[in-house]
Amino acid sequence: LEPLIICYYTNWSQYRDGSARFYPENVDINLCTHIIDAFTKLDNDHISPYEWNDEKYPDSRHGSRPTDKQHFTNLLIELKRAFRPFKFLLTAAVGAGKSTIDAAYEIRQVCQILDFVNLMSYDLHG
């Protein structure tokens, strides 16, 4: 297996001051085998920036409905089907805490659909 070198671009890096400010066009694609653009919005036939703070975990503790857990799985199924002709990978960054995972994700189904999962382990601190 060839190693994956995954570059992770966060959209909030565009709001940094001075030389720390970073835009998608600043990513050196020659360094990466894969690029994750967090967060992105699919709009008809193009990709556009998406404000990272617009989405919440799909569970009732954060204002979602209990059915959102199943809706998230269904969304992944639809995205996987739509991405197939383009050979895109489908990934997700998900909460790492057990209570969030239990409340928000149909983990067995989600893991079968996604190519890989990024755990937001920074949520475990504090």
Describe, in short, the structure shown.
This protein has helices at residues 68-83, 98-104, 107-113, and strands at 6-10, 34-38, 40-43, 46-49, 91-95, 116-120. By secondary structure, the chain is of the alpha/beta class.
**Structural class of the helices, strands and pairings?**
alpha/beta
Beta-strand residue percentage: 15-25%
Described by strand count, sense and barrel closure, the largest sheet is: 2 strands, parallel
Enumerate the strands of the largest sheet in spatial order, edge to edge or round the barrel.
Answer: 1-2
How confident overall, as mean pLDDT? 83
Name the overall outline.
globular
For the terminal residues, how far apart are their CA atoms? 37 Å
Helix content: 10-25%
User: Unreliable runs, pLDDT <50, ≥5 residues?
Assistant: none
Number of strands: 6
Q: Work out the helix count.
A: 3
Order of helices and strands: EEEEHEHHE
Radius of gyration: 16 Å
How many structural domains?
A: 2
Task: Record keyword descriptors for this entry.
126 residues
Would you mind describing this structure in some detail?
The protein is 24% helix and 22% strand. With 126 residues, the chain is an alpha/beta fold. It has a two-stranded parallel ribbon with strand order 1-2. A two-stranded antiparallel ribbon has the order 3-4. A two-stranded parallel sheet has the order 5-6. The N and C termini lie far apart (37 Å).
